Design the sequence.
């Protein structure tokens, strides 16, 4: 049992997954097991302690309010799995849960509560390897295979693509990278002047710095160098280091090709205010930026619509980060 015997009003219909919580009416009592994704401690106006938690499972995320009178067993920390008994409510047009009782479940595996890519890791790895094997330019092939050592490949497969916005789970970077590659290759069919091999290289390597930007023991967290330097510069440094090592061993790598690959990494955010030190200056760099942005935005639209909160039939609640609401009706 998650809770001690005698819990008043324990819903025998549970446990509920997050997706089911959003569909419950206000005042419904729920229970289940969830992963703590975020924790913020606050004080009420009268000086009492309270917590705001974001909890999740493989079906989604939801906010939890923890008042001082909540019975808590164990230390509430990010990455811990908890048993939760609480009441569904709505605040600012968003569904949330007010906790009654919580217990940290030390025997639970947190990894089982994380979101995962829509495609299996094995299938994503196969797709990526197939695209790498299709590259005809020997210089690009040598660079990519030199970068993807066994150790780095394992890190790449586990890494998230972001902390919050898109593909923010283990395997998310791999999933995002494969999709960006596929989008770039599809566009090559329409614009034959594009260099296919250069595009594949840019698509595969554009976020390579994220393996050092994030640490994902359970949930994604920034590393020190991730905060101070960022994945764009970290990726550029890795490319520079690898090419210098190749040349030191007598392996030729054209200077102009180095410039172009590094430019694609440095410019893939598209505009200076989003973190790129330069804007895209040739077609492959511009297309990479567009396809990277497209995949991230499509992920956001799908997430916002499929995990919509609130009672409005047509629109999600206003999102302060994107400064818009989303039309959630699907025809």
Sequence:
């Amino acid at each position: 049992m998650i809770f001690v015997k005698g819990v008043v009003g324990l819903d025998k219909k549970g446990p509920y997954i997050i997706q089911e919580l959003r569909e419950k009416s206000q005042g419904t009592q729920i229970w289940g097991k969830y992963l703590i994704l975020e924790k913020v401690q606050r004080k009420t106006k009268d000086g009492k302690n309270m917590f705001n938690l974001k909890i999740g499972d493989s079906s989604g995320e939801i906010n939890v309010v923890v008042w001082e009178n909540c019975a808590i067993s164990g230390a509430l920390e990010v990455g811990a799995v908890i048993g939760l008994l609480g009441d569904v409510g709505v605040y600012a047009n968003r569904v949330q849960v007010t906790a009654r009782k919580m217990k940290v479940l030390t025997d639970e595996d947190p990894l089982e509560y994380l979101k995962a890519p829509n495609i299996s890791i094995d299938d994503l790895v196969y797709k990526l390897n197939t695209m790498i094997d299709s590259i005809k330019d020997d210089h690009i092939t040598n660079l990519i295979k030199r970068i993807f050592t066994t150790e780095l490949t394992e890190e790449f497969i586990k890494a998230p693509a972001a902390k919050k916005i898109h593909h923010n789970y283990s395997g998310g970077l791999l999933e995002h990278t494969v999709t960006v590659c596929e989008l770039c290759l599809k566009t090559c069919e329409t614009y034959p002047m594009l260099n296919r091999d250069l595009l594949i290289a840019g698509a595969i390597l554009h976020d390579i710095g994220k393996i050092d930007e994030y640490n994902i023991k359970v949930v994604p967290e920034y590393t020190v160098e991730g905060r101070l330097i960022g994945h764009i510069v970290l990726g550029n440094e890795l490319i520079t280091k690898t090419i210098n090592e190749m040349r030191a061993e007598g392996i030729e790598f054209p200077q102009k090709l180095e410039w172009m690959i590094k430019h694609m990494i440095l410019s893939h955010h598209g505009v200076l205010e989003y973190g790129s030190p330069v804007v895209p200056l040739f077609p492959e760099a511009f297309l990479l930026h567009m396809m990277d942005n497209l995949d991230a935005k499509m992920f956001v639209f799908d997430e916002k619509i499929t995990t919509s909160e609130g009672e409005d039939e047509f629109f999600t609640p206003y999102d302060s980060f994107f400064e818009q609401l989303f039309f959630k009706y699907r025809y």
User: Anything to note?
Assistant: Strands lie at 29-43, 49-57, 60-66, 71-73, 81-91, 94-104, 214-215, 221-222. The mean pLDDT is 86. Residues 65 and 210 are 32 Å apart (CA to CA). The longest strand covers residues 29-43.
